[in-house]
Amino acid sequence: MEWNPWGVPRRVVPVLFLFLLASCASHAQRSSQPPAWVGSGLETLPGSGTRFLYGMGRAEATITNVPLSKVTAQERARVNLAFTLQSEIRSLLSAPASERLIRPVVEAVLPHYRITAVDLAPDGSRYALARLPYCDLVAALRIALADPNLVPPEEAPEWRDQLSCNPAARGFSDSP
Known about the structure:
Blueprint: H1 12-25, E1 52-59, H2 66-92, H3 95-109, E2 114-120, E3 126-133, H4 134-146
Antiparallel strand pairs: 1-3, 2-3
Helix pairs in contact: 2-3, 3-4
C-alpha cells in the first residue's frame, strides 16, 4: 500500500506538478512601448527648441549584454543620422553638386554629433537618439561649396551665400 496523505488520485499529481511548474516559470507580460520620443514628432525630442537633425537607433531585446546593446543602439543612431545628412544635402543641392559633396560634408560634420538620449523600453529594447545642430551642416556646406576642387564655380548654386542656418527658411520646421 502506498502512502497518499491527501487522498489525491495518482494521475492528478503529475498534472498538478506541471501546473505548479508553469505558474512559477511564467512572468508578467511586458509592454513593448518605446520611449515617448520615438515616433512622437519633433516637438517631443530632447532639445527641440533649436534646430537639429536627428537619427534614431534601436538595439533589440535579444542583445542581453548591456554595454553591447547601448553601443549598438548608439551606432545605429549615428548611421541613421548619416542617412539624414545625405538626404538633407541632396534636398539642398542639385544632383551633380550634391553627389560630389555628400561624402566630404558628411565626413566633416558627422564627428560633431551627440547622443542625447539612451532609453530602455519595457520589452528590453534599447533606443538611442543622435542629434546634430543644423548650423553645423550649413557651415560645412558653405566651406565645401567655396572649394573649387569639389564644386566648379559654374556648378555652384547662385544661392550659396544665402544658405541659411534656419531650416524654416526653406520650409523645414520642427514646431508643432
